[in-house]
What we know:
Elements: E1 2-3, E2 10-14, E3 21-26, E4 30-35, H1 36-45, H2 51-66, E5 72-75, H3 77-85, H4 91-104, E6 112-114, H5 119-123, H6 129-141, E7 145-147, E8 153-156, H7 158-169
Parallel strand pairs: 4-5
Antiparallel strand pairs: 1-2, 2-3, 3-4, 6-8, 7-8
Amino acid sequence: xxxxxxxxxxxxxxxxxxxxxxxxxxxxxxxxxxxxxxxxxxxxxxxxxxxxxxxxxxxxxxxxxxxxxxxxxxxxxxxxxxxxxxxxxxxxxxxxxxxxxxxxxxxxxxxxxxxxxxxxxxxxxxxxxxxxxxxxxxxxxxxxxxxxxxxxxxxxxxxxxxxxxxxxxx
Length: 170
Ligand SMILES: [Zn+2]
C-alpha cells in the first residue's frame, strides 16, 4: 500500500508498465495512470495543491472510470492545468450526481449502499467525508434515500429512483 498521489488515501501502486509514469488504484479516485512529470509537480506543490484541486482531479478520474476507461488515460501536466481550471459543480448538481451514482450501483429496490464509501467523495466533487455526509443528509431530508438498520448504510427510496429517472430523462 502507498498513498494515492492525487488524494492521499491508502492506495495500491500497480506494476509500472510505462517508462515514465505510475499506475494507481485508489478507493476514492479509482484507477489511473499519471506521468512522472505530473507526479513531480504534485509532490513539489505542497500547500499550493489545494483541496479543491484534489477534488477536481479525483472526480475526473472517477468519471473516466465510470465511462469505462479503466485505468483513466495517463494524466499529464497539461491535463492537470485543464482539469483544475474547471469550476466545481453547483451543490444541486453535486447532490444529483451523488444520488445517480448510488442508485446506479443498486439494480433493484431495497438494496443498501455504504455511506462511507470513499468513491462518494469523488463522484460528488467533495473535499472530504464530512462534505459527503452533508450532501447525503440533504438526500435523507428530501426522502430520496433513507438510513437502514445497518450502520453507515442507506437505501434509495422509490422517490429517489423516480428522481433519478427524471434526471436521466433530461
Ligand atoms: Zn485517490
